[in-house]
Automatic annotation (TrEMBL):
Protein name per Swiss-Prot or TrEMBL: CsbD family protein
SUPFAM superfamilies: Hypothetical protein YjbJ
Residues covered by the CsbD-like domain: 4-56
InterPro entries: CsbD (IPR008462), UPF0337_stress_rsp (IPR050423), YjbJ_sf (IPR036629)
Region feature (Disordered): 1-28
Gene3D superfamilies: YjbJ
Pfam families recorded: CsbD (PF05532)
UniProt family annotation: Belongs to the UPF0337 (CsbD) family.
Amino acid sequence: MNRDQIRGASRHLKGRAQTALGGLTGDPAQQVRGAANQVAGGAQYAYGRARDRAEDLIDDGRHIAEAARERAETLAGTTRDYAEDFADTARKQAGHVIEDGRHAAREVHRRGQTYGRQALAYADGHRTNTVLGIAALAFAAGWLFRRRH
């Protein structure tokens, strides 16, 4: 639980108390302030939850990107091994085939690194959109489910 969740929950409870007290005393201004605090507290709490979830998604994305990078490195290493074996065989047959095998190994290695970087960029590149989307949904839900007196 983060600071926004705690502050949002306490503001929501404060708003409920204000609304109830305003209802008991017949003070509509206090009821309105209470309702506003309830909505604002709910939105702040939802933002805190969204932030927690976004941080979890970021961590998941980093793990996925790291796994993709490791897999790409493994594939590049395997491909390099195959290319070197091919180059050894080719060296026995013809000298120019060696350079072709090395070029192919470098190209596959480059592609593997590129795919790993793209996976990492994709995982790291969507943090803000996720947080903003969840915050907007939370605010809309708070607005739709607000109490009407």
